[in-house]
Amino acid sequence: MDTLELAEKVERGDRRALARAVTLVESGRADHRAEAVTVLERLAKTGRQALRIGLSGTPGVGKSTFIEAFGMMLIARGLRVAVLAVDPSSARSGGSILGDKTRMDRLSREAGAFIRPSPSQTHLGGVARRTRDAVALCEAAGFDVVLIETVGVGQSETVVAEMADMFVLLLAPAGGDELQGVKRGIMEMADLILVNKADGDLKTSASRTCADYAGALRLLRKRPQDPEGFPKAMMVSAAQETGLTEAWAEIEALIGWRRENGHWQGRRAEQARFWFQEDVRQALLAQLQTPDARARMRALGDAVARGEMPPGRAAQDMLADLRAVSASSGK
Amino acid sequence: MDTLELAEKVERGDRRALARAVTLVESGRADHRAEAVTVLERLAKTGRQALRIGLSGTPGVGKSTFIEAFGMMLIARGLRVAVLAVDPSSARSGGSILGDKTRMDRLSREAGAFIRPSPSQTHLGGVARRTRDAVALCEAAGFDVVLIETVGVGQSETVVAEMADMFVLLLAPAGGDELQGVKRGIMEMADLILVNKADGDLKTSASRTCADYAGALRLLRKRPQDPEGFPKAMMVSAAQETGLTEAWAEIEALIGWRRENGHWQGRRAEQARFWFQEDVRQALLAQLQTPDARARMRALGDAVARGEMPPGRAAQDMLADLRAVSASSGK
Ligand SMILES: Nc1nc2c(ncn2[C@@H]2O[C@H](COP(=O)(O)OP(=O)(O)OP(=O)(O)O)[C@@H](O)[C@H]2O)c(=O)[nH]1
Ligand SMILES: Nc1nc2c(ncn2[C@@H]2O[C@H](COP(=O)(O)OP(=O)(O)OP(=O)(O)O)[C@@H](O)[C@H]2O)c(=O)[nH]1
Ligand SMILES: [Mg+2]
Ligand SMILES: [Mg+2]
């Protein structure tokens, strides 16, 4: 199948073609990369835009359970839902996140759903580009909502927030001084905090946790992109499927306001600029990842470590090498 | 003065020549950079090595006061002391750190001391390289101890630890739940924690804080580069000049052990390799900092933000441009 045909099938919403296109954007091969750019460029012309929701939370907070329940609720409303993941640990685990498709048993069997695990990659920069491209493919394929999941361990939330229209933080009910557990930086990124597991015995502590966070959010500086009352903290139970329609109503209200007030397009524009810059930086650094460059870096690094060469001189040698390679390859 | 003469004067310990050489390594100009590399390479042959001590602490904890008192104590022992700074905020403030030479009034008038404020730079990568080069110059000039100060606000501690033989964290006595204030990552970098201001009314709380941190340090995983009892927490008073000789004794014990057990050289070797790699990365990214490249990045970024071009395509255009420039410049 050539790239034109692939792009057309994706545009018609063909899920197998979409899966194939995602594989293409995930590939590290240069020819695949060139094809991917062509496909993405064709599909950019569709002008379709989904609602991109970033979702994060610590392990066990209930992300998978929530996505299953929330996704099914959206499907019931006639919306098409794609689920992607940015897994900061995939370098080690080989892409474990969303490997638990079993936890999204119902959703994965829906015709209106597309679930894709995180690509295994060695660094977050690479995962970020691939996920972002996958988001663009899902949009072109006509999905209405794209959920981008990440485990909350630091840097990956920022990456997800940089490619989403809004950021949802999932929390668990807590006993003691739970506010300590969430980094201020992460809280400042959140548009909506959902305290999950607000059911059974946990309901009381969920309610307290929710009130604590609502209070903490009020202390944050007001951002221009927030309507009155946002960011907001709410309770949900992914297991009991309660609070989900209320959460969706808040999301719609927030996004509606942002669209009307120019913040939605403004954010997308700045994100596109950011990713362009990031692509350029990553590509410049990628020169160091060829087998030859790695071998040379290792050899020079050894000489530096043995004290035979100052770091600055070795760096100059390495850069001269890279220039010679790029000159002789005629690029 | 040519580079040879400059290098010779630095090697003889001439402080004015040293100041000039530091200015050279701080310069952004390409010809200065080339001269700096030549000077550094010449001076690397001296094989001199100072004890490099990284020092960090939040604003107001007493870093300047401590450096003055500690430095004077070292001077009294016949040691030559250089003080450098890595200021993460210098992009904004234009290099405020150690601008308070007045706080180091006595030390700055000593013939055996050299104090240099942080260079004003736009990014930490650049500051890091310049400070590291300045450290090498101070070593070649025969200083025995090089103190590298930074305000503790996150990333800059890591940079300082990466260029020091050991890392000292300065803390203030605290009322309540102070342990919360120090990031776990920062504590894990510390070889020695000094609770400052252990004098007057503050002595009791200093003692409690010190015990708290000693306890916390015991909970950390043992590192191969630590002798029995390290990392360690101690009390000092920079104002009253108490605890300083004790702190120096611990530093000497730690460094002596590391030297004997190969950790000192091992750490230096790995640091040199790290800085070589970092130099290469920074140089690759520096291509984006020429006026032409910045203008082109801005124009392409605008097109991307307006939605006229996908980020990936714009990145390819930019990279093609950079290749054309480097090909035509014959480099
Ligand atoms: N009581 C209760 N339990 C829940 C709820 N949501 C999830 N759980 C339980 O919490 C556990 C973890 O749920 P997951 O959905 O796998 O959590 P996760 O955030 O995806 O975890 P990782 O994939 O490991 O990061 C499971 O045992 C779920 O059954 C809820 O709303 N209420
Ligand atoms: N009581 C007491 N006060 C001290 C001590 N050391 C410093 N101070 C006081 O603490 C204040 C801050 O001291 P500095 O040395 O300027 O602190 P710093 O960490 O350099 O601060 P920045 O440069 O702003 O990051 C001053 O008022 C000092 O006089 C000490 O050992 N005991
Ligand atoms: Mg999960
Ligand atoms: Mg100071």
From TrEMBL, chains A, B:
This protein's record includes keyword Lipid metabolism: no
CDD domains to which the protein is assigned, alphabetical: MMAA-like
Enzyme Commission number: 3.6.5.-
One Pfam family linked to the record: MeaB
Top-rank lineage group of the source organism: Bacteria
UniProt family annotation: Belongs to the SIMIBI class G3E GTPase family. ArgK/MeaB subfamily.
Protein name (Swiss-Prot/TrEMBL): Methylmalonyl Co-A mutase-associated GTPase MeaB
Lineage: Bacteria, Pseudomonadati, Pseudomonadota, Alphaproteobacteria, Rhodobacterales
